[in-house]
Amino acid sequence: MSNICIEAQNLKIQFPLKHKMFQERKYLKAVDGVSFAIEQGTTMGLVGESGCGKTTVGRALLRLYDIEEGGKILFDGTDISRLNDKQMRPYRKKMQMIFQDPYTSLDPRKTVGTIIREPLISLGLMEGKDAQDRVEELIDMVGLKRDHLNRYPHEFSGGQRQRIGIARALAANPEFIVCDEPISALDVSIQAQVINILEELQDKYSFTYLFISHDLSMVRHISHQVGVMYLGNLIEYAQVDELYENMLHPYTSCLMSAVPIADPEQNRRSHRIILQGDVPSPIDPPSGCPFRTRCSQCKEICKEKKPELKRINEKHMVACHLYD
Ligand SMILES: Nc1ncnc2c1ncn2[C@@H]1O[C@H](COP(=O)(O)OP(=O)(O)OP(=O)(O)O)[C@@H](O)[C@H]1O
Ligand SMILES: [Mg+2]
Predict the structure, then answer these.
(1) β-pairing, 316-318 with 72-75?
(2) How confident is the model over 32-65, as pLDDT tens digits?
């Protein structure tokens, strides 16, 4: 019996673009055939430049988009890709999302208690005293005080607000949580606190996370495995230490070389690779390899054939013709 919590198989999400009459409708390929599996109780980090499709992957896993023909999402081994709203109901409570901006994701007119209680009521899980007990348990879990429950979101700091967002996401006792840049709006000193809470909760309740972030050192710290996306594609996917110590894809090397290094001596010795050119448009992606227009090692085959994500060893997969 495998203990895979959530799996994407050839996931494709495209958004139709506005078009003029008599013109062919065009599509933006936000996610273009992505596959990975996250084991129960582990964290998969997802990195890549802005617009490469990370949030779309996260939302697609929660079935907030229709999944294109041929793609699949398996949750605890069940294919949920084509379930309708009613059939999705039992799964909705098992999958939650924590957002980047705790300022806009909490309703300013409601008390914290009401905000955390809401999912319990709307999913029909609990009411009355049971719901109140659960809300108190949740506020304890994220390290806030019970008298905070009667206050409003604007009375809290950013870090506290993110704790409220986490408490709400946990209300229905989910198994899988998409954390979409959960710390990028927070002060550096607060970031570590929120990360610690996420890690403690994972240890205790065996949550499975998809952790989307631009902070590559935080991704290294929290993840068990990491996926690197470029223009809607997963181009490298490996266990965390393997990826950071032995990056294979030319794009991953560029992305990682942009991370500032605290030690000035090491910084001087490190080689920063500057990416040439702009990210191509996901409406008209290049033929062959999506990265080939900016790749210094581009070969003829890279223009003709899209490289598949291939296993290099037990811990590491890469989509690049250099490893054919
Ligand atoms: N609802 C939508 N309708 C049309 N296009 C969309 C929609 N959502 C996302 N896109 C487009 O899909 C692509 C992927 O977007 P996505 O938000 O997944 O990127 P991202 O990797 O999360 O970026 P960021 O790091 O900036 O959050 C982008 O080109 C974006 O403009
Ligand atoms: Mg995003």
Answers:
(1) unpaired
(2) 999 999 999 999 999 999 999 999 999 999 999 9
CA distance 175 to 5: 8
Please, which residues have CB within 8 angstroms of residue 66's CB and are 6 or more apart in sequence?
A: none
pTM for the full predicted model: 0.93
Expressed in percent and rounded to 5, the helix, strand and coil fractions of the chain are 35, 20, 40
Q: How far is CA 182 from CA 168, 218, 241, 279, in A?
A: 14, 11, 22, 25
User: What's the residue count for the chain?
Assistant: 324
The DSSP string of 21-45 is TTSPP-EEEEEEEEEEEEETT-EEE
The residue assigned the tokens 């949030």 is 55
Q: How many Cβ atoms from other residues are within 10 Å of residue 74's Cβ?
A: 16
Structure-block tokens of residue 2: 């495998």
Closest residue by CA, ligand 1 atom 28: 51
- Structural tokens at position 85: 């709203």
Residue-wise pLDDT for 108-166, tens only, equals 999 999 999 999 998 888 989 999 999 999 999 999 999 999 999 999 988 899 999 99
Which ligand 1 atom is nearest residue 181's CA?
A: 27
- Closest atom of ligand 1 relative to the 232 alpha carbon: 14
**Ligand (nearest to CA of 99):** 2
Place of tokens 């894809």: 249
